[in-house]
Amino acid sequence: MIDTGSQATVVSAALADKLNLTERRPAILIGMVSREDVETTEIPQFALGSRTFHIMVAPLLKEENIGGADGILGLDSLQDQRVLLDFREKRIFVDDARQLGGNGGYEIVVRARRKLGQLIITEAKVDGITVNVIIDTGSQTSVGNLALLARMRRAQPFGQSTLTDVNGAQVVAGVKVARTVAIGRMELNQVAVSFADAPAFAALGLADKPALILGMQDLSVFRRVAIDFKTRRVLFDLPSSATAGVGSLFHS
Fold it and tell me: Engineering a disulfide at 181: which of 64, 76, 188, 248 sits with its beta carbon 3.0 to 4.6 angstroms away?
């Protein structure tokens, strides 16, 4: 799994045992809804394409908590590279920006700031409220923090959802529908947002500031989304149609 919301590269406990990675150390892993004690291991050699990394601290998780994958490719392995989500081809690419076609074909390019390896978009608004936006390829749905919820008193309630994180912890979250999520010159309309007091927001220093994790369900309305860690930019390739997925999209 490629997770642009995860700081660390993770391996499943089963894979670590198979590879005889027996040196273990304790750590605390901050998930979407929980903080849990976990074991970590060192990965002497991890290859991604033509690049090879030495990962000092890789948390160990249960396969069932990471979608049955052998691991999660986190931000520590993605720095100076571009992650390209191609929703037309239903493929994800990780490579140098030039190898992935450069910036051609992207109508919207947004600058982001870096915090703990994460790219945070500050040129964004939810229903006119200035927010910090995190593009999270490991989250299925979009999640807002309580500071944003407090500002969205007039937003339409939309039931509840259950959020499950990589620790296997769950929380029932209230859902509201944002009329617009504006990033740069484009807008997503009618976006369902789950709200939770997620430790991930606090870890990024965003607990008291309106913030939104934009998940794959809403990212999939685009043709392509590229997250370029080297240049600190997020690029969007708009769809030809104004409607897709949960919400509709247009740009001015």
Answer: 188
Q: Please report, to the nearest 10 degrees, the dihedral formed by the alpha carbons of residues 136, 89, 224, 107 taken in order.
A: 180
Cβ distance 235 to 83 under 8 Å?
no
Angstrom distance (rounded) from CA 21 to CA 16 = 5
Distance CA 76, CA 192 (A): 30
pLDDT at 111 over 60: yes
Which is nearest to 180 in space by CA: 215, 129, 231, 216? 129
Other beta carbons less than 10 A from residue 107's beta carbon: 14
> What structural domains does the chain harbor?
10-77 (no CATH), 82-251 (2.40.70.10)
DSSP 8-state assignment for residue 73 = B
Report the distance separating Cα 141 and Cα 177, nearest Å.
12
Reported as a single tens digit per residue, the pLDDT across 46-98 is 988 788 889 999 999 999 999 999 999 999 999 889 999 999 999 999 999 99
According to DSSP, residue 200 is labeled H
DSSP state, residue 170: E
Can you say whether the dihedral through the CA atoms of 86, 87, 91, 92 is positive or negative? positive
Contact present, 249 and 187 (Cβ < 8 Å): yes
**Using alpha carbons only, what angle is made at residue 153 by residues 151 and 155, rounded to the nearest 5 degrees?**
105
**Cα distance between residue 49 and residue 172, in whole Å:** 39
Q: Cα–Cα distance between 83 and 77 in angstroms, integer?
A: 11
